Amino acid sequence: MIPTYSIEAEEHEEYIVPKRVGFYDGNGGYHEFEGDDPIWRFLTFVRTNYHGISIYANNAIDTDHKILINCLARHGERIKMDGGMSKIKWPRGEVTFLDSYSMMAMSLNKAARAMDVPRKAEGEWTPNELTCKTLSKTLDAFYDLLFNTFGVEPSSTISLTSVKIFDRNFYQMKGIHHNQDFEACIRQATFAGRNEVYTRMGENVNLYDIRGNYISCYDVPVPVGKLVWVQPNLERGTLAEARAYVPERFVVGPLPYRIDGKLGFPVGHLHGWWDTRELKFAAELGCDVELIRQLGGHEEPALAEFGRDICRLRDEAEYGMDNPDLGGMWKTIGLRLCGKLGQNREKAETKHVREIEDRDGWYPLDETETYYEKHTLQEGSRMPFVKPAVNMRIRAEARIRHARFLLEAIKLGGKVYYCDTDSVYTDSFLPTGKGHGELQLKDWAQDIYIIKCKTYGYVDKAGVMVQRTAGFRDVALTEKEFKEILGTGRVLASWKCNSGWKRSLDGHMKAQKRQMSIQDDLDLGNRILLENNVDTAPMNMRE
Questions:
Q1: Residue 363: how many CB atoms within 10 A of its CB?
Q2: How far is CA 330 from the centre of its chain?
Q3: Do 217 and 401 form a contact (C-beta atoms < 8 A)?
Q4: How far apart are CA 538 and CA 528, in angstroms?
Q5: Average pLDDT, the chain
Q6: In angstroms, rounded to a whole number, what is the distance separating the alpha carbons of residues 196 and 79?
Q7: How is the chain split into domains, by residue range?
Q8: CATH classification of 4-152, choosing from 3.30.465.10, 2.60.120.260, 3.30.70.890, 3.30.420.10?
Q9: pTM: predicted TM-score of the whole model, two decimal places
Q10: In this structure, what DSSP letter does residue 514 have?
């Protein structure tokens, strides 16, 4: 079994007070520490009795590791953070503290269900003992799952685990060129997913999601060879600088474009770098595309076999085992491969103040200025998993497939209301299926009210108001309030640290600590709100 610990603390308005610590050594031994300075009691016990141990906590980055760092700093102890906040090493005693959330990308409850570990107390277990032993069994089962399936052990993060699985079982990472010489061009041609509001109110709306959209795109050829300048040709090549004209009649713009630092899909005259597949897609729809210069290299579907295996494992978990949490874990492992290949080369390094000779470029992390952080750019050989051209291609293909569903809904005579990365909200009826890359009907809305991107609500088939409002989850807005917000364009609200949102006596949400308000700031995905205050149109980039 795997050693674990859990800190029980009391939360106050602006601070957290640790009360007791539970520690499970993985071999049946469980200990609790409380009283005066329970964290230091725990640390000294572990240092004395478990030299060289690695210990996990659940979601430690947010709280537990910060508490440990604070305690160690108070006692004049140094630490090393080789993996950022997710991995802390205490040199005295060679004790390493790791975050289980970084390893599995799941809460303990979900991870335990995924690994079929019952979370129940036996006898006189305390809450800390329950957490420690459940986490230990879950991590142990996770190790077994990965080793039995792919012959690998998990790394400190699920992203590194994903790369390890890919490299050792499917396609060696060294076979994919890093193309660092052209990284500036590649980054310019790399865009996020589409998130746009098309029609802000509607009835009888089907809420579709594309199942596993990104992983389904792993079957596409990706750039694996060294990029070189080639003769511009829309039928070949990998990425290009181009001029494009998107006709004003387009409701769904086919080309991603950065407007004042934000992503949009405008009409009109555009100039920039795009993946060649995305430029070809735009040309097929009737856009004028003029290539200025182009980069090309050897391409092959290097991610295809990995994608098929991940899709199979997810299907077996969700459809065969009725275990959606395990399916979600396989999905995350699949997604993180693409994300890791596209990561930034900037690396954060953390050191104790006594280890820094020249503080130029170093910035303190804490009020006592004990630990400092510095960000540096790493070269290709020092960042072996950064292959941004692969990430660029998968993202481009995912946007193309997403756009095809949106366009199909319009072609059928319906309206599109909203989309976010892999969702299609429309009153058209589109074909659905269980496979990856196919649409699934997630819900149906009698009425839908969309304030802005990621902030909307709808009345479902049971007449219940369902809210999807990023940052507003603690306040249940009524249908009447959604209508009022759409009419006035504003809602006054702010976040109260630790205890959520609060509504004042006059019905508004009272301003507390950090201001997070929607007030005359309708983020419609860089679209223009039309005069009827309901429909939108793409921004027009005129010459």
A1: 10
A2: 15
A3: yes
A4: 6
A5: 87
A6: 45
A7: 4-152
A8: 3.30.420.10
A9: 0.87
A10: B
